[in-house]
Amino acid sequence: MQFQDYYDTLDIDRSASGPEIQKAYRRLARKYHPDLNRDDSEAESRFKQIGEAYEVLGDDGKRKRYDQYGAAWNQARQSGSSPPGFENFNFDMGGSQGGAQSFDFGASGFSPFFEKLFGQQGRPHWNRQRGAANPNDSFSARKGDDREATLAVTVEDLAKGAKKKISVMDPMTHERRSLEVSVPKGVLPGQKIRLAKQGEPGSNGGPAGDLFLKIALHPGSPFALDGRTVTLSLPITPAEAALGETVAVPTLDGKIEIKVPAGSSSGRKIRLRDKGLPDPKGKNGDLIVELKIVVPDTLTDDELSAYQRLAEVTSSRPRDR
User: Residue 11's pLDDT is what?
Assistant: First the structure.
């Protein structure tokens, strides 16, 4: 049974502190992670050795047992047999509680040396009663924490779908890299897009967490949303409001022409059916155009005369209604 020098595996002194052990593990785990070394056939084996070393040295109780009996194993590594006095010895690390049976994960990746030194009870186990990994088992591979960020998009992006480039921190190398994100057609603000394995790194060989991008509307868009109903404020002139006029209106599908009814006031709303945001089944919401009468900041002489004449001949006053 070949001796495993966990201190050499993590490239640390035997007097290393807990934080030093953790720092060394994280550095080496990132370096040899299989996802970052797809062309290196030995990376996965090295990654498992690093994880096994950390499982022992990162736990005070297991490290103490290893320091106590490791020397004996080192003496016997050339003989291929158990150390003197340990032929039938199994170090009991404590079993499952509450009547729950445990069984081997199968592909735990722990070496025969680990198995002999710590016994079956030292290996990862699964709680049959709950059907989930035992949270007290420090040997279990654990998924990293999820992260969340905001992705600003326009209403047009939501209506048609879009490709967006974002910059993220790689969970393994901690370097920034660019990713292309697909914004699904019809998604709503507040909903999230999941990017698998772009969250925090896992522990003990577990996968990285996920990155969730929360959809938000980009500021400055002429459109607003009320569910799947798109709203738009349309500026018109006093003459267009009073006399009625055909005007161009921007929509999610491009500009179209609509008729402003004569005698329209600011705040009047015109509904355009099926010009809003689509739902997952392909049915579109509506577009609500709200009229807003805008008076020019400056007037030409002709415009000033016309407004003066209009004031003279206007008999109705909206304040008197």
Answer: 93
